Amino acid sequence: MPAPKVADEVRKACRIHARLLDAFIAMTEQELAQLTPGFAEESLVESLEKMRAARKSYGGLAGVMAVDLETSNAA
Question: Source organism's superkingdom (predicted)?
Answer without folding.
Answer: Bacteria
